């Protein structure tokens, strides 16, 4: 099918459990990570290391690139992307300048644009902003080397509050039911569960060492550190050890090893070259999809899962699959 795009293998429809994954189109002109829905379109950060993960790309509903813009300065690297209404927020780390969060208007992301932020937040020295979540009213970002969480207004990125924590704060996950934030320390693996409203510490538990990202889903916390392990989000008890997963390398920031899609959590299994979907509420396997040259899962929008592949020195390709 022409929709599959160049270099898109014709995998068979994979059926298992209560759903199926079927190949759709490949994203045009660039591969992405942190891909999120933006209305009927998709937005993500360039995943080509030569461009240093510092440009935003906007694709329409059939994968055609309709906008892209550079994020100054050089060098810099995006660690997280959020879309709130008509705005996109990007957290950046830079070895020579302070770490920042930028706010851009989606309407300004046009072909070849040099993006000018409408607002920004600059972390204090050693802030090294790693992860962001949105609770429906505020943006929360973790500061790795200086520790803690900052709470920001999405309107102008002004500082609303600072929740202190030990040095090494890295991954964040948000539970909208309990209205709590899971702050995972990237050094010792201590999880501090905080009230999103007040920042009060409610409980703590330990996960594996050197975690860099996490996803909350249906009472479970999916934590990545080169291996993927699932924990009960209340008790901290280990639920399942998934072994080696792709998209995370011993605390590397800016990756997406776990992706929530509908009633599932997806990850890439490099040893078996397959994408795996787990039931979000139990972490039991629901679907598998063999993918040649698999690199990582890179985002989701509605029932569409984004998967990156890469062959040798070639630039990565983002391909899409429909969950049905």
Helix content: under 10%
> What class would the helix/strand composition place it in?
mainly beta
Distance between the termini: 19 Å
Mean pLDDT: 84
Secondary structure tally, helices:
0
The share of residues in extended strands comes to: over 45%
Low-confidence stretches: 1-17, 249-253
Biggest beta-sheet profile: 5 strands, antiparallel
- Coarse morphology: globular
Please outline the helices and strands:
Elements: E1 14-16, E2 19-26, E3 32-38, E4 41-46, E5 55-59, E6 65-70, E7 77-84, E8 87-93, E9 100-105, E10 111-114, E11 119-122, E12 129-134, E13 139-143, E14 149-152, E15 159-163, E16 169-175, E17 180-185, E18 190-195, E19 201-206, E20 213-217, E21 220-224, E22 227-232, E23 238-244, E24 259-261, E25 264-269, E26 274-279, E27 285-290, E28 294-301, E29 304-309, E30 317-323
Parallel strand pairs: 6-10
Antiparallel strand pairs: 1-2, 2-30, 3-4, 4-5, 5-6, 7-8, 8-9, 9-11, 12-13, 13-14, 14-15, 16-17, 17-18, 18-19, 20-21, 21-22, 22-23, 24-25, 25-26, 26-27, 28-29, 29-30
How would you explain this protein's 3D organization?
The protein has 324 residues and is an all-beta fold. It contains no helices and 30 strands. The chain has strands at 14-16, 19-26, 32-38, 41-46, 55-59, 65-70, 77-84, 87-93, 100-105, 111-114, 119-122, 129-134, 139-143, 149-152, 159-163, 169-175, 180-185, 190-195, 201-206, 213-217, 220-224, 227-232, 238-244, 259-261, 264-269, 274-279, 285-290, 294-301, 304-309, 317-323. It has a five-stranded antiparallel β-sheet with strand order 1-2-30-29-28, with no helix packed on it. The radius of gyration is 18 Å and the shape is globular. The chain starts with 13 loop residues before the first strand and ends with a strand. The relative contact order is 0.15. Residues 1-17 and 249-253 have low confidence and may be disordered.
């Amino acid at each position: 099918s022409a929709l599959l795009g160049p270099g898109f293998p014709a995998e068979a429809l994979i059926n298992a459990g209560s759903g199926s994954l079927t190949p759709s189109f490949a994203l045009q002109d660039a591969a992405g990570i942190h891909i999120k829905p933006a209305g009927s379109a998709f937005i993500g950060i360039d995943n080509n290391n030569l461009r240093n993960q510092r440009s935003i790309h906007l694709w329409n509903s059939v994968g055609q690139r309709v906008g892209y813009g550079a994020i100054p300065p050089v060098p810099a690297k995006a660690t997280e992307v959020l879309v709130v209404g008509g705005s996109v927020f990007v957290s950046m780390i830079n070895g020579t300048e302070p770490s920042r969060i930028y706010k851009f208007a989606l309407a300004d992301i046009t072909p070849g644009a040099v993006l000018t932020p409408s607002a920004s937040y600059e972390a204090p020295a050693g802030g090294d902003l790693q992860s962001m979540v949105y609770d429906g009213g505020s943006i929360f970002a973790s500061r790795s080397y200086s520790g803690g969480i900052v709470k920001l207004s999405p309107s102008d990125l002004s500082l609303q509050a600072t929740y202190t924590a030990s040095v090494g704060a890295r991954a964040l996950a948000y539970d909208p039911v309990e209205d709590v934030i899971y702050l995972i320390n990237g050094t010792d693996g201590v999880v501090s569960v905080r009230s999103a409203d007040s920042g009060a510490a409610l409980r703590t538990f330990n996960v594996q060492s050197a975690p860099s990202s996490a996803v909350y889903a249906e009472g479970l916390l999916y934590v990545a550190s080169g291996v993927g392990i699932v924990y009960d989000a209340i008790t901290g008890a280990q639920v399942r050890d998934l072994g080696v997963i792709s998209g995370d390398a011993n605390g590397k920031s800016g990756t997406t090893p776990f992706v929530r899609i509908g009633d599932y959590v997806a990850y890439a299994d490099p040893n078996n070259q397959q994408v795996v979907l787990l039931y979000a509420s139990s972490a039991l396997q629901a679907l598998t999809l063999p993918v040649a040259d698999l690199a990582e899962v890179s985002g989701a929008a509605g029932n569409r899962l984004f998967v990156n592949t890469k062959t040798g020195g070639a630039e990565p390709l983002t391909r899409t699959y429909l969950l049905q």
